[in-house]
Amino acid sequence: MRWDNLVENTSRPGANGDIALFGTDAVTTRTFDTPEFRGITFHEVRARSIVNKVPGASRMPFEWTVNPYRGCTHACVYCFARKTHSYLDLDTGLDFDSQIVVKINAPELVRRQLASRRWQGAHIAMGTNVDCYQRAEGRYRLMPGIITALRDRANPFSILTKGTLILRDLELLRDAASVTEVGISVSVGFVDQELWRTVEPGTPSPERRLDVVRAMAENGIGCGVLMAPVIPFLGDRPDQLRATVRAIAGAGATSVTPLVLHLRPGAREWFMAWLEQHHPYLVARYERLYADGAYADGAYAPKWYQRRITRQVHELADEFGIGPASRGEARRITPTRDPDRPDQSRRPDQSDRPDRPDLPVRPDATQLTLL
What we know:
By secondary structure, this protein is α/β, with parallel strands linked by helices. A seven-stranded mixed beta sheet has the order 5-6-9-10-11-12-13. Strands 3-4-8-7 form a four-stranded mixed beta sheet. Helices cover 30% and strands 15% of the residues.
């Protein structure tokens, strides 16, 4: 496995290019003989940077991310982040599911980087690469420190997750929402039990994820649902879409944003191998739908298909009363500041910072979080 050649190329003023994210002397490898972690290896590292700039060419509707983990025990066969494991000379299949990199100093790095004079208080998105509330978080508990650092600086942030462990930090999220903008989204692409067991074997069930949405709503925290991925020929029948949107609306979601399966390199090979094993009759149809040159070198389904799914989901959202928010409006928790609570940590330049404009959903847009 290689560590030293993992570098952060950044355009931030005053930053040095090609800074190693961590070195071999900073890696500790552990295994835990407990049922939930059997067969999983954890590589504990002391990262050198944690608040990362999203490349300018990216289609993501955010500019900065924090990812305390690499690899994910959720083991979703379609996960687009699988390619990142190849940078460590690990494979994008079983290694991605079982060789987990843990940036154990993530909370202190977030606190340090937010305190920098160069930091302007921009929105930070979490859970956009691998899930920050995967099973490992139950042991390492990195998110409470990260959220606390963001709260103390009144820095806006959002979290996208499939994990029910986020409910552990509910009070902390409510506290953060009293001083800054906080967005929570849960990923539920379908409610089909058989499909869930085979494509998302390490995740909580869709019903349990929707319980997170209910709990957030009951505690005054608006929670959107990223309906992702909609899987062609396996989860896109009209009755399946209807059942999923009905369940999302019934859970009290503030919005629903559909996202069709995309198969980037690393994920594509693993997903197609799974498809060959479980649904061989669909392989040829997928090769046609995700053909090279059809759209974005075959990583994305054609625009006509994405538009069709988006239209169907929006119509169902209207039917079940989710309303205009399903059109992709940014969801924010409005801070309700306690006048008796001092906020000495809020940076003066943040109070004057204009909000980012809402980002409308384009049928072919890749939106991984609702701000």
